[in-house]
Structure formats: C-alpha cells, structure tokens
C-alpha cells in the first residue's frame, strides 16, 4: 500500500508541475468572471518592481489579468488563485540562458488573498530575503521558491500557512534557518524541500519540529549542514505517513538512530555522504519492508553485509529496487540470500571491504539493470551461471584489490543481456581478448584495465568506434597496430590504451577529447592532423622521433600535452598563442635543444611546465615570470647558464615545486624563493651556486604545516599526474601520485659556504633536507631536532664541526642520515632512531667522532689524561693559596678583635691581666706540688 501511495504522490506533483501551463490556458478560456481590480493592480505593481529580460510578463497588458501569462483565476469569482512565474529558460542547476525575473518582490502581492498556488522558482532575487508577508497568504497550498537566489533568514511567518501542502525552498544556498518550530504549525504539509538551506543553527531541534507532521509524505533536507542526529526515545516523532526521507550530504558524525528504523512507511531513504558511522543493528531493516530505494553510500559504516541484506530479505513483500552501500566499510561476503531481493534493479557495493566469492545466486536477480562491485577483495571464479537470468543488465562493473578473481567465460558464450557499459579491472580475464563481448552491440563504454590480456585488439572493437564514448584498455599486454583513421562517437570520447605493447605510427582519430597512448612502442613522427577537439594528449614513453609539428599550436582546446620520454629533437615551437587553455606541458626526457622561447608564457593558463632532461642551453628568459599560474617548474638536466632568473612576478602565488638541478647556474640563491607561499619542493643541486644559504627560507609557510596555503586553488587543477625525479634517501626516485605530500629542500653539489641557518629549523614539515657537497662550516644547529617530520638528512662532504646535537635523537621519522666527510667530533648519539643507523660509512671522514657503529670507543686518550692531571695539580695549587690566605686573614681578625678591645676598654684590660696572673700562679703552684710529689716517690723506690 505504501508503494502505491508513493507512486501516486510523485505522479500528483509531477503532473501538477508539468501541466500547469495547460491548466492556465484552460482557465483563461473558461473564466467568466472579470478580473479583480485590486488584484490586477497588485500584479502591475509587482511587474513594475522587477526586470523581465525573457519577456515572461510581456502579456501583462490590458484589463483582463486572468488572460495574462502565468495567471490563473477562479472561474466563478475571478480572483487570482494561481501565479506560475517559474523561469523555464534555465539550463541546469548551475547555468542560466537568462536570469529570469530580477529585482524586488512587491508587497502588493499580499492583496492576492485567494492565491492557492505561487511558483517563483528559478528566478534571480539575489539581493532580497524571502518576503515575510508570504505568511499572510493564508489560502496557499503550493509555494515554490526554489533556486531563486534568495538570501538571509527564512521568515518564521511561513508557519501561518496552515493550508500549505507543498513547500520548496531548496537550492537557495544563501538562506538559513535559526529556528524551525514554525514548521510544526504546517499541519497540512505533505511535501517539504529545504535542500541546501543552512540549518546548522537548528541541528538539535529539527526532528521535533518535523516529527509532529503526521501528514508529511516527503522530507528533503539534503546538504543542510545538519550536525546532530538525535538519538534515544523521541515521543514527538510521528512520521506515520512519511514515504521519502532524504538527509544526504550532511555532517551528522554519529551512528544511525534506532527511531529511524521505526518509520515503517518509508519507501525512499537516502543518508549518503552524511558522516554516518558505526555498525547497523542486525534487526534494523526488518521493519522497513516497503523500502524501494536505500542509499547509504560514502559514509563510515562498519558492518557485515549480511546485516543489511539479511534484514531486507526477511520481508516477504520486499520491493527494494535500489541498494547503494558503496564507499563504506562493509565486510564479509555477499550472502546467498541476496536472491530474495527479487525486485532489485541496482546493486552498488563499490569500495568496501567485502571479500570471498561472488554467489551464483546473484544470477537469479532477473530485474537487475546495474551491478557494481568494484574496489573489493573478491576471489574465486566468475562463470556463466552468475549471469544466468540477468536479461535486463545494462551495466556490469567489478574489480578485485587482491587480483584473485578470474573469469571463466567461453569466447562463444552468448550472454542473456545486452550491456551498454562494462568495467572490469584488476582481474584475470585474459590471455585472449573476451570474444563474447562481440555480441554486446549496444556497448558505449568498455573498461578492461589490468586484466592480463596479451592479445591483439580485435577488429570488431574498431568497428564499434562510432558508438564508443569510453575505451579503457590500460595496462595489459596488448600488441599489434591500431587503425590510423577512426571516427568515434560524436558526443566525444575518451580512449586510454597506455602501458601496452602497441606499435606503429600514432593514429589520427576524430571525436576523441582525451587520448592516452603512453608507454607503448609507437614510433615515427607526431602526426600533423590531430583532431582540433582534443583536450588531453599523452604520447609519453614511446619511441617518437622528429620535430614538434607546428600544428600543435592550433589545438585551441588542448589542456594537457605530454610528449615526455621519447626521442624528439629540434627546438620548441615559437608560436603558442593558440593554446589559450593549456594547463600542462611536458616535453621532458627528449633530445630537444636551443633556448626557451620568450613566447612560451603567452600561455597564461599554464600550471605545469616540464622541460627537464633535454639539451636546452643559454639563459632562462625573465619572461617566465609571466607564467603567473605556474605550480610546477622542472628544468633539471639541461645546460642552462647564468644566474637563476626571477621566475616569479608579484602575482605568482601558486608555485609549489621548482627543480633546477644539474644545470650550470651561477650566483647566489635568489631570496625571492622565500616569498613563495606554497613552495614545497626546491631543488637547486648540481649547479655552480655560491654564497650563503638565505635564512629567509625559513619563511616557506607550506613547510611549516601539513595543509597547503592555497589548497582550494590546487583542487581546481587539471587531471594530470605530475612526475618528478628526486634524490631521496640516497638514491634517485621518481614520484608521481605521492608528489603532493613530498616536501624537499635540496641545495647539494654547489659551492655554498657559511653556516646552516638556525632559522630554518622551524620548517617542521620538511621531509628531505640535502646540503651535501658544499663548503658549509660551523656547527649543526642545536635545534635541528625541531625538524620533527624529517626523513632524509644529508650534510656530507662539507666542513661542519662540533658535536652531533643531542636533539637529533628526537627525529623519530629520520630513516636516512649521512654526516660523512666533515670535521665533527664527540660521541654519536645512541637513542631512538640512531639505533637503526648501523652503517659506519655515514660517519666516516670525521676522525674525532666516536661510538657505535664506528670502531672508535669514546674512552679518553692518554694525552688527555696527562692534561687532566696537570689541570688537577693546577687546581690544588690554587686551593692552597686560598687556604693560607684564609689563615692569615683569620689571625689578623682574631688578634685585633681581642687586643683592640683590651686597648680601648681599661676595666676589661685590668680584669684580663688579673685573670692571666691568677692563671699563672695557679699553674706555678700546680707544677711545684706535683714536682715535690714526684721526687718524694722516687726516693722511696730507691
């Protein structure tokens, strides 16, 4: 019953919108009552307040307003009951043929007291708020203000429209709601769409407001910046009629609340890309037996797939048509019970953690039109049984991250379906090209990437080229030649045959906007007659010879041109003015020579310029500063001379990587590098640069934090895989996809002198720091340990002295170190990462270094002991001097403390001497008595 209600609701609103113009015409033909004068005046005032470039209101002349375009009157009273002023000239959600009505909305419309239907959608009221007087149009049942560029706060007076059944405020990105309690008063509401309206201030109250609307059948609140998902028991939730709930593209960051699974009437549930996380209760979907569409894609749900499929398949009357769980963390195999979802038309399980074999029962889903299983860890065999009853299948996509899935389909097999799009990647399909695909006469898109085909491309593929829009046969072992002249689909096609063994001359194909033929064995010259429609041309990694054809400068739609790693010769073209949209130019690894033409930067859109590893010479023109949008500049491995030119102008804000290594540049390092806000890679090695290292390099803000300063701009750059060869961890490495997270300063192999600037130790996100083979002196900065994310440090072959700073022990990411051939001394640190540096060669050439892994222990040498003893004797002599000085001082102080007092105090002096005389007499008597006793004793003994 719910399914029928949902279908009827959609049909009701669809017909209401589609035939409104026909209805208006019928009312004009049969209206007998005259136009209401007050209401006519209201419309005239409204017309006077807006601009009408499309002539939508051109018929608004004369007395009979009921005959005007977009106006519908009551056939009995003549009152205006419908005003349909939707801009029908809009191309899409982001494009206009014309802006529609522009200006203000006259307050006079408040006089349309019998108005039931008001549609002002897709116009351009970009400087006004939604008028609060709309809340006075009490008879309104239908109000559509969507995509009309309103701004500001949504008026709460709309809550007065108690008869309103349909409300659409969607696609007005600059309106917001602070309190949604007014919605709870719309007791007759059946449909509401607030998509793209900022409801962040109402995140905690929206459910209570909407939950009391028992008549509500459709609730659209996609991309509303909702940041809370109420949990627990909510007695106000009374969605007894709700059929559709769209809450996708919000930011709930919570698990799915249990109350949602109690809305048993739901037919369409969309929570895609809304920050949903956690697991799903195993009984969650048993109550949602009326679901037709279920979309949970692009969240962080971590559950076994059986929990969803098992619950849905338990409904005896299930009518599920769409199941989209892609881009989550669902795990486990596809349960065999999937066959119970017999009405399923779209099954989307891409980009999860699913594994195991594909159940043969999936072939029982007779209604299936789209089956998408890419980006999981499948294994086992795909056989003809898997497709047994899939007669309506139009799209089939599968890939296995562990490459353990194989296809066992006979070449002569005739499938029951007629595909339009096939996508198979990272599986075992070959070695022969799948012959059964020849039966698929409706194919417009073919993807067979990395499927182990070592065969020629069959002729029937090329016979289908007039209908092909996408042909991806990337990274196989396809061999042979390709047809020289083909015409692909007129809607423009993309073709990727790269990383194969194809040979022969480069073809001239038409209606191809993106062509990747890189890393094959194509030879000969680049053709002159390349189609003008092409926007991406990648012929890199072949054996092409000859000069650059002048016709390249005529490809006005070209955005990316990659001709690297060939055998091209001659000079760079002089005329580049025709390439007004070129973003990336890669001519690296060829035999090109001469100078860089001063006209190259007439391409103002250029972001990536790679001329490395050629035979270019001379001075680099200062005109490169006119390339104001450059992000990558690679001139390495040439014969450029002179000083490094000013590569930037005052407007250059996007330069991320500069590679000038292995040239013949002279002079000092220009300080303007310090003023590039997003510079992450600076490689000047292998030149003849002199002078000191500019301390202002410490100002490179992009090396101080993980997020690039202009990250938003970088997101708009073309789909071009950048590549750069860098010295990392002591060897040459080629970086492509990971280049965006590499932070490098390489100034090695020059004649730089002076000390390492201590200021540069604040570049905490620097990953590679190479200053080797220079003439640097002084000590390694004590705070070098502040380079917390450093992985490679090479200071070898300089004249650095002093000890290895203890702070280096805190550089826990460091995995390559070379300090050899300096004048360092003292012990080698042994904590943390230094335990892993067991190669003694990284310390060699520093005779005064000691400790593991060097064979020299850090015990003191003999001459040092003697020097220490001399020092000890010297210290003892100083102590004796202080001892005797203290005695003399003490004697003087003691003497004058006593004698000085006796001299100054006469009574004290008399008392003192009497005391001395008494002590003297006592001593004499004591001695005399004892002497007499001793003599007397001796006589007795005799």
UniProtKB/TrEMBL annotation:
Keywords: Cell membrane, Glycoprotein, Leucine-rich repeat, Membrane, Receptor, Repeat, Signal, Transmembrane, Transmembrane helix. It comes from the Eukaryota. Residues 1-24 form the signal peptide. It is found in: Cell membrane. Pfam families: LRR_1 (PF00560), LRR_8 (PF13855), LRRNT_2 (PF08263). The keyword Cytoplasm does not apply. It comes from Manihot esculenta (Cassava). One of its GO terms (molecular function) is protein kinase activity. Residues 39-74 form the Leucine-rich repeat-containing N-terminal plant-type domain. The chain crosses the membrane at residues 881-904. The lineage of its organism: Eukaryota, Viridiplantae, Streptophyta, Embryophyta, Tracheophyta. GO terms for cellular component: plasma membrane. This is Leucine-rich repeat-containing N-terminal plant-type domain-containing protein. It is a single-pass type I membrane protein. SUPFAM superfamilies: L domain-like (SSF52058), RNI-like (SSF52047). Belongs to the RLP family. One of its GO terms (biological process) is post-embryonic development.
């Amino acid at each position: 019953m719910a399914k029928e209600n949902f279908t009827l609701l959609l049909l009701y609103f669809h017909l209401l919108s589609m035939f409104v113009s026909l209805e208006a015409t019928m009312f004009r033909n049969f209206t007998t009552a005259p136009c209401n004068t007050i209401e006519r005046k209201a419309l005239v005032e409204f017309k006077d307040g807006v601009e009408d470039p499309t002539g939508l209101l051109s018929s608004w002349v004369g007395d009979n307003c009921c005959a005007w375009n977009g106006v519908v009157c009551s056939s009995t009273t003549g009152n205006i009951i419908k005003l349909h002023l939707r801009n029908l000239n809009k191309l899409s959600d982001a494009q206009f043929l014309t802006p529609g009505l522009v200006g203000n909305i006259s307050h006079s419309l408040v006089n349309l007291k019998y108005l039931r239907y008001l549609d002002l959608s897709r116009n351009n009221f970009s400087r006004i708020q939604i008028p609060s007087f709309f809340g006075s149009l009490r008879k309104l049942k239908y109000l559509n203000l969507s995509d009309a560029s309103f701004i500001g706060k949504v008026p709460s007076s709309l809550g007065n429209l108690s008869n309103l059944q349909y409300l659409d405020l969607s696609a007005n990105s600059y309106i917001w709601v602070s309190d949604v309690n007014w919605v709870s008063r719309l007791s007759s509401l059946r449909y509401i769409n607030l998509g793209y309206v900022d409801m962040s201030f109402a995140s905690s109250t929206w459910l209570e407001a909407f939950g009391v609307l028992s008549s509500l059948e459709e609730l659209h609140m996609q991309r509303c910046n909702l940041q809370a998902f109420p949990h627990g028991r909510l007695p106000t939730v009374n969605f007894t009629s709700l059929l559709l709930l769209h809450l996708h593209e919000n930011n709930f960051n919570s698990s799915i609340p249990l109350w949602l699974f109690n809305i048993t009437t739901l037919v369409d549930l969309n929570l895609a890309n809304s920050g949903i996380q956690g697991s799903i209760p195993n009984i969650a979907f048993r109550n949602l037996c009326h679901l037709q569409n279920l979309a949970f894609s692009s969240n962080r749900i971590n559950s076994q797939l059986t929990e969803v499929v098992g619950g849905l398949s338990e409904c005896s009357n299930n009518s599920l048509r769409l199941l989209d769980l892609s881009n989550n963390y669902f795990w486990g195999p596809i349960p065999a019970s999937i066959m119970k979802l017999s009405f399923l038309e779209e099954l989307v399980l891409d980009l999860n953690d699913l594994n195991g074999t594909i159940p043969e029962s999936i072939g029982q889903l007779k209604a299936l039109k789209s089956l998408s299983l890419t980006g999981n860890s499948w294994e086992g065999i795909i056989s003809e049984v898997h497709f047994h009853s899939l007669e309506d299948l139009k799209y089939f996509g599968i890939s296995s991250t562990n490459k353990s899935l194989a296809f066992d389909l006979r070449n002569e097999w005739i499938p029951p379906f007629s595909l339009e799009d096939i996508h198979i990647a990272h599986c075992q399909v070959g070695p022969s090209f799948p012959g059964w695909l020849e039966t698929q006469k409706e194919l417009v898109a073919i993807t067979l990437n990395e499927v182990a085909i070592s065969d020629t491309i069959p002729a029937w593929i090329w016979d289908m080229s007039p209908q092909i829009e996408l042909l991806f046969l990337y990274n196989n072992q396809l061999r042979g030649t390709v047809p020289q002249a083909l015409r692909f689909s007129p809607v423009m096609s993309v073709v990727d045959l790269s990383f194969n063994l194809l040979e022969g001359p480069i073809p001239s194909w038409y209606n191809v906007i993106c062509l990747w033929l890189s890393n094959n064995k194509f030879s000969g010259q680049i053709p002159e007659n390349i189609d003008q429609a092409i926007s991406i041309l990648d012929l890199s990694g072949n054996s092409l010879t000859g000069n650059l054809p002048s016709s390249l400068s005529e490809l006005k739609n070209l955005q990316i041109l990659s001709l690297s790693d060939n055998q091209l010769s001659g000079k760079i073209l002089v005329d580049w003015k025709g390439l007004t949209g070129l973003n990336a130019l890669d001519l690296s690894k060829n035999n090109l020579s001469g100078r860089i033409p001063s006209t190259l930067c007439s391409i103002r859109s250029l972001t990536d310029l790679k001329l490395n590893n050629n035979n270019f010479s001379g001075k680099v023109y200062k005109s490169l500063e006119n390339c104001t949008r450059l992000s990558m500049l690679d001139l390495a491995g040439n014969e450029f001379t002179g000083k490094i030119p000013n590569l930037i102008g005052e407007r250059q804000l996007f330069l991320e990587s500069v590679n000038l290594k292995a040239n013949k540049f002279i002079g000092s390092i220009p300080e303007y590098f310090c003023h590039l806000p997003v510079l992450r890679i600076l490689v000047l090695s292998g030149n003849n640069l002199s002078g000191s290292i500019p301390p202002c390099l410490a100002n490179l803000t992009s090396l101080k934090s993980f997020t690039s300063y202009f990250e938003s701009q970088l997101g708009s750059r073309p789909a071009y895989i950048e590549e750069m060869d860098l010295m990392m961890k002591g060897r040459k490495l080629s970086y492509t996809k990971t280049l965006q997270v590499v932070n490098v300063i390489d100034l090695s192999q020059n004649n730089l002198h002076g000390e390492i600037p201590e200021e540069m130790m604040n570049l905490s996100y620097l990953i590679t720091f190479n200053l080797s083979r220079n003439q640097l002196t002084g000590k390694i900065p004590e705070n070098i340990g502040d380079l917390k994310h450093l992985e490679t440090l090479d200071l070898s072959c300089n004249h650095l002295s002093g000890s290895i700073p203890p702070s280096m022990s805190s550089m826990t990411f460091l995995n390559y170190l070379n300090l050899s051939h300096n004048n360092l001394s003292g012990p080698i640190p042994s904590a943390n990462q230094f335990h892993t540096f067991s190669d003694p060669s990284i310390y060699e050439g520093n005779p005064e270094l000691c400790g593991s892994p060097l064979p020299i222990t850090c015990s003191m040498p003999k001459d040092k002991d003697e020097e220490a003893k001399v020092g000890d004797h010297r210290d003892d002599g100083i102590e004796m001097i202080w001892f005797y000085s203290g005695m003399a001082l003490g004697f003087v102080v003691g003497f004058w403390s006593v004698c000085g007092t006796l001299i100054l105090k006469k009574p004290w002096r008399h008392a003192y001497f009497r005391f001395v005389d008494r002590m003297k007499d006592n001593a004499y008597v004591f001695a005399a008595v004892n002497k007499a006793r001793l003599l007397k004793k001796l006589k007795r003994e005799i």
